[in-house]
Amino acid sequence: MLLACYPSLSADLKGKDLDLPVLLILLLASLSLGALLAPAWWRRRQMRLASAEAFPRVQRQWLRQHWPLYRKLPSDVQLRLHKSIQKFLADKEFIGCDGFVVTPQVQLLIAAQACLLSINQPESHYPELRQILVYPDAFVVPTKHVGASGVVTERSEVRLGESWTQGQVILSWRHTQAGAAAPYDGQNLVFHEFAHQLDQLSGQANGAPPQPTLALQQRWAQQMPTLYANYCADLAAHKPRLLDSYASTNAAEFFAVAVECFFEKPAELQQDSPSLYLLLRDYFQLDPQLWNLSL
Ligand SMILES: [Zn+2]
Q: I need a surface site. Which of 11, 93, 205, 282 has the fewest CB within 10 A?
């Protein structure tokens, strides 16, 4: 890559006498450029090599045992999922917190669920994400709240997971396992947090992730705010709705909670809100209703 730069530089300076300082500056500039590009090149190379390998049979069997939804995936979806998992595992750093030991099985279960959401994304491995921090159970985070009078109150809040725009996802392993083991209850921590990651690709979590086409982006912009408002109104009127009440927090949580139900209760979501189901189907380019989850 560096060598490709040299011919053009030499051509531009052809016929001129290059003294030592100029050569040094050119050398330093080339080294700086190389240092800038090398990590991205290395990441891509590692992912390419990893995804070129066959997906290990032992990993397929492990997923079948510990994530029942995997068994329902059509074979073409499984194949694409395997490639995404391999890229994901080659690219991300897993960090155990509070003494938790991250094993290959921990990485696999998180990667598999995360990548199901992204297999049809232009880059299926969450390019902005660098680290996954895993706690053994729910964790406590300090928070600050500013009251109407401007008074700041410090508290501690218990969390199961978090998704940051700076390239980190934080997960409770106990709840990650529970979400995978009960795949048809509409509650999945990994789906939830990685839906936020997709949403945050637009720069902020606002329930409007970047869409594959302009037409879908326009449909999303027209329909999603109304779907969210109607959901909140139904909740306030005590009308039964499928999504957990946490979805009323804001548009970003509405999207993340809807994603959990889309993959784990697709028929129920289609019945509860056909427009919402169709938006998610077209966004993910997947149709979980066809996966016969109830059989
Ligand atoms: Zn959330």
A: 11
Structural domains of the chain, with CATH: 42-181 (1.10.472.150), 206-295 (3.40.390)
How many Å lie between the centroid of ligand 1 and the Cα of residue 23? 53
What is the spatial distance between Cα 257 and Cα 191, in angstroms, rounded to a whole number? 9
DSSP state of 185: S
- State the distance from the centre of ligand 1 to the C-alpha of 165, rounded, in angstroms: 13
138 C-alpha to ligand 1 centroid (Å)? 14
For 22-33, give the DSSP string.
HHHHHHHHHHHH
pLDDT in tens, the chain (295 residues): 333 333 333 334 344 555 767 777 777 777 777 666 677 777 777 777 777 788 999 999 999 999 999 999 999 999 999 999 999 999 999 999 999 999 999 999 999 999 999 999 887 679 889 999 999 999 999 888 888 788 888 889 999 999 999 899 999 999 999 999 998 999 999 999 999 999 999 888 999 999 999 999 999 999 999 999 999 999 999 999 999 999 999 999 999 999 999 999 999 999 999 999 999 999 999 999 999 776 6
Ligand 1 centroid to Cα of residue 257, in Å, is 7
What is the whole-number distance in angstroms between the Cα of residue 252 and the centre of ligand 1?
Answer: 7
Query: What would the two tokens of residue 152 be?
Result: 């700041």
CA of 196 to the centre of ligand 1 (A): 7
